[in-house]
Amino acid sequence: MIKKTPLYNWHKSAKANLAQFGGYKMPLWYPEGVKKEHMAVITKAGIFDTSHMAVITLKGAQAFDLLQKTFTKNLSECSNFQKEPLKNGQCVYGIFLNEKGETIDDSVVYRFEKNQFMIVVNAGMGALISKHLKKNSNGFDCKIEDLTDKIGKIDIQGINSAKILLPLLNNGDKVFENLKYFTFKGSFLPESSVVLKDGSSILLSRTGYTGEFGFEIFMQSENLVKVWEMLIEAGKDFELTPCGLAARDSLRAGAMLPLSHQDIGGWKFINNPWIFALPYNKEKTGFTKDFIGKKALSDIQIKEYTYPFAGYNLRKVPSSSDVYDHNKEKIGTVLTCATDMATDRKEDKIFCITSNEKTVPKGLSCGFVKVCKKLNYGDKVILSDNKRKIKAEIVKDIRPSRTARINIKGLL
Predict the structure, then answer these.
(1) I need a labelling partner for 403 at 20 to 30 A (CA). Which of 14, 45, 61, 182 fits?
(2) What are phi and psi of 296, to 5 degrees?
(3) Alpha-carbon gap, residue 41 to 56, rounded angstroms
């Protein structure tokens, strides 16, 4: 049975193109199109219904220990990208692996208190990750609760996000104070320290899946529609644009963010752009803790490599297309190929409209390839589905000048 979020009727009335994703009927795009939505997030602000994501809570004296065992990131030394323990009000990105070192799902873990955490995983993954945690929780004092479909979630992303949200918050200036990237305040419970003007309790997080400045907002699902409509109304003067999953995909690809079960999945989580999610020691010679999947990832014979790429124009190929090296040898497959409409090349260097406003970008294809040999940044490859061929470059980064880490004060 296909599920619907509480905002389904709103999307339908807004004439969204709806399709199934992760077991939910979700908007792919609205009438103005994906390009408008993508560019809105880069230059103004966009709003996304992300209530299809799953929320799991962990409570108990050994909740931390269970996460240390099952989650790749070392919570004892990952505070705000420093070698310090994760603190209350901070969150961190990492992976849940199986014993083979393969990705079950990626996740952001939030710490409320010493013995209380929240996990956010992808649509349809709440039950599976809960089962995985329970299977590995024998002997642990930890209560695991799957809150799938009980928590509403809205992402508001883009440089105007804080201006839109500020007048809707009680004590907004205080809420924004010291709200840095990958920190959060409040909760979705009635006793939350972050409350909207209408009395809705929210958890406000400086995170998102676009690479741009913005927030993720969690609340009780029954409050979702009214909060969404409040944001839409408040955003009229700031060109806030409703966005669907297609823009979410193109934005995250340009921001070098993986799609679980596509860019990371049924192969070992190694030799990819996201190894920062692993608890490597300083020398990258081993890991700083034990965790499920560690043994499999310690195999130095792994010969699979995932790399980001950028094309030379907006032409793209489907996922699963073939990858060829300069010798025309087939070396792998395309995982993601999207178009970042905010980027282009000038003198063979990639720029974003936010860093070069005098030149209007035409867009670049970009994404990730999985290959069987080591490549270097700057190497050229050909992506082909036997119908079309496009030239691409292996790159260290894709969309420059991303705003996700910018200080809130500079935007108000």
Answers:
(1) 14
(2) -65, -35
(3) 28
Domains of the chain: 3-48+150-252 (3.30.1360.120), 54-146 (3.30.70.1400), 303-401 (2.40.30.110)
- Asked if 316 contacts 366 with a C-beta cutoff of 8 angstroms, the reply is no
pLDDT digits (tens, 9 = 90+) for 123-151: 999 999 999 999 999 889 999 999 999 99
What gap in Å lies between CA 283 and CA 43, rounded to an integer? 39
Question: Following CA atoms 115, 121, 127, 133 in sequence, which dihedral angle do they give, to the nearest 10 degrees?
Answer: -40
Q: In this structure, what DSSP letter does residue 82 have?
A: B
Tokens of 90: 């901070």
Question: Are the C-beta atoms of 202 and 188 separated by less than 8 Å?
Answer: yes
3-state DSSP helix/strand/coil % of the chain, to nearest 5: 20, 35, 45
What spatial distance separates the first Cα and last Cα of the chain, rounded to whole Å? 44
- The alpha-helical segments, DSSP class H, found in 177-332 are 224-234, 245-254, 294-297
Encoded tokens for 409:
């004060």
As given in the structure block, the two tokens for residue 7 are 């905002």
308 strand-pairing partners: 368
Which helix (DSSP H) or strand (DSSP E) does residue 185 occupy?
Answer: strand 184-186
343 forms bridges with which residues in the sheet?
352
DSSP letters for 14-28: TT-EEEEETTEEEEE
**115, 63 contact by CB (below 8 A):** yes
Q: Which amino acid is at 194?
A: V
Give residue-wise pLDDT tens across range 288-341: 999 999 999 987 778 899 999 999 999 999 999 999 999 999 999 999 999 999
pTM confidence score: 0.96
According to DSSP, residue 258 is labeled P
